[in-house]
Design a protein that fits this description.
Elements: H1 3-11, H2 17-25, E1 39-44, H3 50-67, E2 72-77, H4 82-95, E3 99-102, H5 111-119, E4 124-127, E5 137-141, H6 143-160, E6 166-171, H7 177-190, E7 195-201, H8 207-221, E8 228-231, H9 234-246, H10 262-270, E9 276-278, H11 281-296, E10 307-310, E11 316-322, E12 325-327, H12 332-337, H13 344-347, H14 353-358
Helix pairs in contact: 1-2, 3-11, 4-5, 6-7, 8-9
The structure holds beta-D-glucopyranose.
Length: 362
Amino acid sequence: MKACTREAAIAMTAVSTAVALAACGADAGNDADGKKAPSIGLLLPDATTARWETQDRPLLEKKIAELCAACTVEHANAKNDVAIQQEQMDSMITKGVDAIVLVAVDARSLGTTVGRAAEADIPVIAYDRLAEGPIAGYVSFDGEEVGRLQGRALLAAMEAQVRGDQIVMMNGDPSDPNAVSFKKGALSVLQGKVKIGKEYDTLQWRTETANMNMSGAIAALGIGDIDGVYAANDGLAAGSITALKANKVDPLPPVTGQDAELGAVRRIVGGDQYMTVYKPFRPEASAGAALAVAAARGESLAELAPDKVRTRDGEDAPAVMLRPVSVTLDNIDDTLVKDGVYTVQQICTPRLGAACNEAGLT
Ligand code: BGC
């Protein structure tokens, strides 16, 4: 008799069968088929970009629990430090987790560690950022499309406001392959249509760095000569806008963003930021969780991940590629509110009351 069945049989004299059997599955740490329940490592890159801890982590943990009640999740956040993330990966490998979900701090530097996990038969699911090395699967959005959406929105806003054609580009961290794709997509739309007055790569996607760089751009180009700001995500938009305001740039030029952070949505309603790119969190986390659970159980990913991604090692890996959505004042209701990411009450602080009414956010 398996330990679990024996315990249930003993317990049956005192408690109901249902309770005893339920305890047998989840509490005794067994998966549905009676085997030891898998453990999944979840490695996040930083706590500076809100999405990882406030959206992705809770959604991934919830979905993993739904798919595998007895699975355990071990979470670690590298706080933007490559060496710390390598140690966290190594520690998960030593503990013998059954799969790892990885958002790499630095795609290239993590490649060797991904290789060590594969040698130990631990599949790695690259989440949102494509890590180098022999990954088992990948879940993300079309990064070039994100950049194109940002570029098109910026051009449209500059035309509508009848502004000049000089922009400042705040790109992400070039060690993140997504940042490279966002920039490529944006340039495919903007090149030849605008003058790029200043352009910065932002190591570790830091808001403070974008803030400092924007102050430098204003000093170099002049207060009235920035007609648009391409900011690769909402953190960089926040840093840029704070610098524009501190330098009394008025009116503010249109500023792009990405991640649909609550602060960014409020800035859009208040007129400080023009747009953000919403990459629906729920489908991304659901796909990430499904791949992780299947990989941890040793099942094939082919059906769950019908797309393909070419890794830097020239191999194809099964992937789920999702569609990003451009969000401006006009469609906050139809996207973020409709999907339940934020309620109107969350977005509309008392200070934004009049702007919310005007935008029909009630
Ligand atoms: C993600 C973005 C995020 C950025 C900074 C990128 O890899 O795709 O959503 O804003 O990293 O964390």
